[in-house]
Amino acid sequence: MNANSSRSSLAVPEEAILESCGETPLPKLGLIEQVWETNSIPENEISYRAGEAFGSLQLEDVPDGGEIALGVGSRGIANLSRIVTGVVAEAKDCGYEPFVFPAMGSHGGATADGQREMLAELGVTEDVIGCEIRSDMDVIEVGRTADRDVPVVADANAVAADAIVPINRIKPHTDFDGTVESGLSKMLVIGMGKQRGAKIAHDWAVDWSLRKMIPEITDQLLNAVPVVGGVAILENQRDETALLESVPPEEFLDREAELLERAYDVMPTLPFDDIDVLILDRQGKDISGQGMDTNVIGRRPFAIQEPEPEMPDIKRIYTRGVTDVTHGNAMGIGSADFIHHDLLASVDMPTTLINALTASTTRGVRLPPAVETDRAGLVAALSTIGIISPEEVRVLRAADTMHLQRLYASTALIEEARERDDLRVVAEPVPIAFDSGDFATPTPNVVGEADESTSN
Question: Which superfamily does 43-266 belong to?
Fold first, then answer.
């Protein structure tokens, strides 16, 4: 029996779900839109602005013709290839020899080819950005922490360069809360540490906590390797590039803390704190480090010694698929209550487990029950939340935890939206339409894309 047929046998048929759950009335769904006021950098200016940010770094100690290692990660950052291309072009104009190294810990299956492929999926290839990509899993130990004697390691290619510049987005992290979370410092500690460094950090974080570890090891790395600064990225609620800023090494921790506060202010979230069923069309490493952003779903069941977010309160989560870019890495799948068979069939378990072992979050990759169809998934979720009428049940369907501007919403939520200035009703509730048991309507879009049919 091959893997696909074996997985197919794990998916519960729709008929069995419907027979077990009995008559479960389904709500009608309409379409709502979150009203956001945002500013973004025009796309035709992004490369120039990124180069400008790099050019303002303190580069006086870098020799003419010196090599500059640019750290680039695996997250789905908007305009990533434009940003990297702008930095590369400016570095060359300044007389340096830039190269990119994957700064993504164990992602890409913890292999050099896998990490190069992840960069390519994000549009970062040598032909596009105009410089060499040196993808290697070798690391060098550059020191040990004072109190705990923890090894501090870094990408061998980066350490050998004349200068290191991480390029990363500042945003809330999914596994912990701290003064610095996901950004330049974490890229140095975990991303630049490759699989070994990521594993060391997450192993020690069980007792030490990443919120305490990252600042301490960042300070040590800044003293041990030639980091001349970083290029920080902020995105707005629509995942558009809102800020590109140079951060000198001596300001890494303080400036990141300030930018993190701004990132929290503009982080897209669900517009309701109390939800009965949340349907997510996809998850993926390009969406969030945990596949589904824990800050959005209010669940962090896999993090040891890290509290879960207080809100929102979601009774059931049904997840339908994974993004292509994630290459079957289903990290965080354990946060769902039910999953579609298509998601189960797409899981690359070796890649997923390596990521989970590295991050010490194995509970996050436990497989939830898989169902054959969307109708079965929705019925299973609704039948396990108590007796709630279709008119009162609170159901949302989103593309993923990153794209939250437009959402399918049940009647009760549509009525609430009418009373709020931050929400707009785009389409009135109609019965859910299915095609062979799966949703007939496409993923809710974002403003600026072509409107989909308003029937569900």
Answer: LarA, N-terminal domain (3.40.50.11440)
